[in-house]
Design goal:
heterodimer, A: alpha+beta, 2 domains, 56% helix, elongated, B: alpha/beta, Rossmann fold, six-stranded mixed β-sheet, four-stranded antiparallel β-sheet, 7 helices, 28% strand
Chain lengths: 407, 237
Amino acid sequence: MFFTDIIQETYLALMANKARSGLTILGIVIGIGSVIAMVSIGQGVQSSITSSIESLGSNLIMVQPGTQRGIGSQVSSGRGSSQTLTLADAEAVKQQISLVGNVAPEASSRYQITAKGTNTNTQVVGTTTAYSIVRNVSVASGVFISDQNVNNSAKVAVIGPTVRVDLFGEGVDPLGKTIKINKIEFKVIGMTKEKGGSGFSNQDDMIFIPISTAQKFLTGNDYLSTMSIQAVDEKSMTELQNQVSALLLSRHGITDPTKADFSIMNQADIVSSMSTVTQTLTLLLGAIAGISLVVGGIGIMNMMLTTVTERTREIGLRKAIGAKKKDITVQFLSEAVALTFIGGVIGIILGWLASLAMTRFAGITTTVSIPSVFLAIGVSGAIGIIFGYYPAWRAAKLNPIDALRYE
Amino acid sequence: MIDCKNIVKTYSTGSISTTILKGVSFKIEEGEFVAIMGPSGSGKSTLMNILGLLDAPTSGEYYLDGHDVSKLNDDELADIRKNKIGFVFQSFNLLKRTTVLRNVMLPLVYAGVKSKEREKIAVAALIHSGLEKQHYNHFSNQLSGGQMQRVAIARALVNNPSLILADEPTGNLDSKTGEIVLGTFQDLNEKQNRTIILITHEREVAEYTNRIITIRDGEIVEDKKNSRRKAGSVSRP
């Protein structure tokens, strides 16, 4: 028996029962299609979270003041609320550690902002020029805070595009306008480019002012809320984290690292911990869709068992004229695999279209990855073999005498 | 060509065992046209299954073309069936919704004949079986009983077997069509020197062969030449 014979036999057998074959294929189409669509949602979420974390800047280490709970201590004030980091710490990090590319200290808090007749409540970040490099912020119009602004404690502000809309309205040029932060007047000197981020770190909804101004007029103290440190390259991240930790511990006079009064977060750590969450999400979505794939597989087995029963006499005849067990097994197995393969290909196309439709009409980010497509093809083939094997085996072990007599 | 020595077949269901064939011995030479005749339950079908290598005897020896084939496994038996035996069944056993040509070519598929050569061989077999050309591309279920049996005969011939086994080939046909089918067998026997064994329960049918082996209760009761052979209809339908 040649391969072309198997293809031909399979084609004729499937065409002999078009409706039944079609419905069985549909089961696999739904299974594979939903796996592709669901996994694409999971991977879409993953890539959008990863890219939004990466939009914060690259090779970042964030130092936040705060108490890591010491032994016996039950109370923790939230991170960023305690006052342990100073501008001097930031300077020291920048001067003493060679792996540091740039340091952007921040003193930020939420304030009520007013302009002529409008007001909003948003995050005001006191920082330095380095912030625009470290956190990957660029201005759409005007300029960012300069070193001179910081030295002079100038009352100037760079606003995000969302703040612009809230205070002045869409399309209005904010440059040169005056806003009041906590009743103190600031002059708008620039507006940042839209980043489109959302959620916990929306840089479009922020106001940047010189750190000296923030400490002098708004917070009234010398402490920082965050320090963003950029490593010179990706390889030195871990080493940098260790060095920063050691330097700050010695500056703060702490010998036991478990009692550090600050915490260090590595951007890679954040990405990887978010990835764990989204991978679990992907797995969950895939598993739910996988159930329908299993149901589709059972449909294949059901159809094949019916087919074997119906064609018992034919199997008997084939054996009488010289078909071996292997020939019969291959014939029925290839029917099952053909069903799942056709279903798999259509399912991939439909699943792909479904994920494109979700992105277009529901605004959900989806990513169909090539590995998931190959995985789907592999899984559908495997389902054909697994669920087709038992019926094929039953066909092959039929006794030709009984099979020929079967009514 | 066929040499059966003391063939015994016992079926056991649970603790009860029934002996269907009780030591059957006979020889069939090449080119013979033999009827194995007996009432139902006589063991003739069991004997045919053993002769056709669809079943193995419980004891005894069966030599086909000089080879002992009574102790081979399923796949080895399938190989011999493929090369040496052609079957014609009472109920034709053609594949439905499949053309006449494809039905006849089916044994060639398992014999590994190249697809280009198959049609030529199949057409030659169909000419010998006497089916008209216009039916070659019809579906098997569009044919009459006589035509279907001719397709089945062509299928049995296509591998050029040394033995053709026909199990009640006229059982589902009216007497006139049956006569034509039997005439075809006579033709194949005389003109091509084919060895044909015909299994039947009707003396009427057995009369068309050259030798009648009568079997009853698992034993051969009579084995004689049939000198007054009836002539089958040679006219093509």
